[in-house]
Design goal:
about 400 residues; alpha/beta; Rossmann fold; 2 domains; 7-stranded parallel beta sheet
Length: about 400
């Protein structure tokens, strides 16, 4: 099978090799293990994005097709024909086009490759979290209106495509609209990545960890406030933040200012961006509790699987698919409650039996969510769907 792949996350060529962010690169290479060719129709990066293209593609059957610069969303909309032209020109070489969404150009890319069969992998919605954007009200309104348009156009594509979703919320939202709908899990984990231990919180200070995008919808300020509360109660602990700042969101500066004001600046450490692999995984192995305090609904953070795979007890808010996927394997609390977050951290620090139970259950859950297993199942579903489409076309013909 020869497949195309499109998402808005960029990639580049350096010294004859393809580089992209680790979470995308690992997925693309997992795809390549099951087909003869993966043609990646991706943007070239902005200068500030190049440092995040940390993963070197080693699969020889992956090809990068540059569709143009990773420009602003309005510019991509206005020049959609230019950005989708490479895919239109190569459509005769493809058996299937896999479109990851939400993505600004997903509807236009889907139209550009017709009549090639399209499969969608939906991992969220642009409508989630708009209210938490650090933007003037009028700009938020424009973003909201555009997000509604993008989602409406995406729904039209769904009607004639094979659709994978990575959350129960997305499944329910598309049920009845997508005739070929399947729930999947998105992950960066390979079977060789797992790390086993029985317990954490054995030394002081206790290390809390957050990894992922640094934006305010993830509850980062609430984490720091909970940390401050616990330090005032006499707990010896710190918070490590790992990831990349969201463009236009000054959350990191706000965290640092708040921490200084509370006298805990030495307890909050921004460790920077860590590429998926040994460098990032060492952060999980050094952590005692993994915290993700998302305020808005989302798909499912892949970082939760990463933490569970490295035997870190997980504390998360009950938003999106988090409770559906990991209830019983993590400590869950309501969103937007600093009091609940503070109490839950305190309980995990104080109860070894609870930590051990979450570590065991979490690791067992993550074992079933590896790239090898998930992508193999995706290809089985895609193969069956393509065969049914061919049979249907032949019968009608």
């Amino acid at each position: 099978m020869r497949i195309g792949f499109h998402y808005h996350v960029p990639a580049c060529s350096r010294e004859g090799a393809i580089y992209m962010p680790g979470y995308q690169g690992r997925f693309v290479e997992a795809l390549a293990a099951h087909c003869s060719k993966v043609a990646c129709f991706l943007h070239s990066p902005r200068e500030d994005e190049r440092e995040y293209l940390d993963h070197r593609i080693s699969s020889p059957n992956v090809e990068l097709v540059n569709i143009g610069p990773h420009a602003s969303t309005p510019k991509r909309m206005l020049q959609a024909g230019r950005f989708t032209a490479p895919a239109r020109e190569r459509r005769s070489d493809l058996d299937l086009m896999l479109l990851r969404g939400p993505s600004p150009l997903l509807p236009q890319m889907a139209a550009a490759v017709q009549p090639v069969p399209r499969a969608l992998l939906l991992v969220g919605s642009y409508l989630d979290g708009v209210g938490d954007l650090p933007q003037p009200w009028w700009r938020k309104k424009l973003i909201q209106l555009w997000s509604h348009w993008n989602q409406h156009a995406q729904t039209k594509v769904v009607a004639g495509a094979l659709t994978f979703v990575n959350s129960r919320k997305l499944y329910e939202a598309h049920k009845g609209k997508a005739p070929n709908l399947f729930e999947t899990r998105t992950t960066t984990l390979s079977e060789k990545d797992f790390f086993e231990r029985d317990d954490t919180c054995q030394q002081r200070p206790v290390r809390l960890l957050y990894t992922g995008r640094l934006d305010r919808s993830k509850g980062l300020l609430e984490m720091v406030e909970a940390l401050s509360n616990l330090v005032k109660e006499g707990y010896d602990l710190g918070l490590d933040l790992v990831g990349w700042p969201e463009k236009g969101d000054p959350i990191l500066a706000e965290i640092q200012e708040y921490a200084r004001g509370q006298g805990i600046a030495n307890r909050v450490a921004y460790l920077g961006f860590k590429p998926v692999g040994p460098e990032l995984f060492q952060c999980y192995r050094a952590a005692d509790i993994f915290v993700v305090a998302s305020k808005a609904s989302e798909g499912f953070p892949r970082t939760i699987w990463e933490a569970m795979a490295h035997s870190v007890p997980v504390l998360a808010t009950e938003v999106g698919s988090i409770p559906h996927f990991i209830r019983g394997a993590a400590k869950l609390i309501p969103p937007r409650s600093v009091q609940a977050l503070t109490s839950a951290i305190k309980e995990l620090i104080g109860c070894s039996d609870e930590r051990r139970a979450y570590i065991r259950a979490g690791r067992a859950s993550a074992m079933n969510i590896t790239l090898e297993k998930q992508v193999k199942q995706m290809f089985k579903t895609m193969g069956t769907w393509l065969e049914e489409n061919r049979f249907s076309a032949a019968t009608q013909g």
